[in-house]
Hints:
There is one protein chain. The chain is an alpha+beta fold. It is 39% helix and 20% strand. It contains 14 helices and 16 strands. The chain has helices spanning 2-28, 47-55, 70-84, 100-114, 132-141, 207-221, 256-266, 283-294, 311-318, 321-326, 360-365, 376-390, 398-401, 406-416, and strands at 60-61, 64-69, 88-93, 118-124, 144-148, 167-170, 174-178, 199-204, 242-248, 271-275, 298-304, 330-334, 343-346, 350-354, 368-374, 393-395. The strands form two sheets. The protein has a nine-stranded mixed beta sheet with strand order 1-9-15-14-13-10-11-12-16, with helices on both faces. The protein has a seven-stranded mixed beta sheet with strand order 2-8-7-6-3-4-5, sandwiched between helices. Strand 3, helix 4 and strand 4 (118-124) form a beta-alpha-beta unit. It is globular. The two termini are 42 Å apart.
Amino acid sequence: xxxxxxxxxxxxxxLIALVxxxxxxxxxxxxxxxxxxxPVAATDPRFPDYIASLVGAPVEPGDHYVVLRNGDQAxxxxxxxxxxxxxxxxxxxxxYGDGIIGDExxxxxxxxxxxxxxxxxxLDAMGGELSSETEKTLTNAxxxxxxxxxxxxxxxxxxxxxxxxxxxxxxxxLAFTGGMGISDHWIGNAQSPDNWRDTHFQVTGPxxxxxxxxxxxxxxxxxxxxxxxxxxxxxxxxxxxxxxxxWSNPTAGASNVKLFYxxxxxxxxxxxxxxxxxxxxxxxxxxALDEARKRGVRVRILTxxxxxxxxxVKHASRYLYQTLLESGYEIYEYEPTMMHVKALTVxxxxxxxxxxxxxxxxxxxxxxxxxxxSDPELATALVRDFEHDMTKATKLDAATWGNRSMWKKVQEKxxxxxxxxx
Length: 422
């Protein structure tokens, strides 16, 4: 009798779990597919104004960008900026953990606060991996630390919404943004499976003010208190770059980040290069890329391979490979280590950088921060990096991709059911 009751209880538990999963999958489904066109090409000088007007953001002229490849190039200037800070440091990140590099940042943040610099940190409550001792070290030194969207029993439905933004702004003069958090797997130069391949950016110029504004939005939302008045816009750096800073929050339908990507894809007339660790297409993004292919646009996708921190997402991503390959997409999987770069380039002139992956989680669920830049020099540098990374990747082939095992195909089909959550 006890065994029968146990079995009934077990079956009831499974049924409840399936119902919950089914409800979640229904909730996150897109309510409609977006079909976006751009009458203005990415190469048209009017394009930054066109796309900016549709997402309600200004065009920032004359910014200067320095491409920082991997931890060896990114962490030293970031730490140097913290050491030289005179007024304030604002950091927002998904991942910040104890370890070699995390401890160094902690020491420098604490030292800055102790010499009178205002240090504010917005850390995602799920991605943050700081110990209570480290948090106490920071707060005792005067650092103002808040957690974005902590898990609470009475707001479990909010657990799915994270801040994935990554930015550090120092004295309103200098900003850093891109794909990197603060954790030991970003140390080095992608020289081993334990050292990730990633790209960050150092920004000076008018866009810094907009990047700092995005920080203060989540500072307020996380209970940090009042946001001070922003400094006047920084002077033009004398470059030809024209930037559009966009950030997003969870939304039903299309966030500004998603719309920005769709419009950028629609602006392509020659080439699209997508570099992202997670590439999970919904009907809107696949439709936009398919339309680009029909226009004769070459579409190349460079993503992570077997070395990944999210195997279910990898399976969901691979579910569509056969269809994409047969449609003429070029797909490359990076082999040496986890590839965490987030960049899109269009026609050698337009680039999108920032925190967003090429998936539904970034386009509709996370708080994200991206920058679109019209600048042939920056786009050329990113395409050069893309093609260098291609030399360390496996190019997939439509004729052989179908030869993988049935077990892999089953996993891909199963995890594709959750693609709207990834």
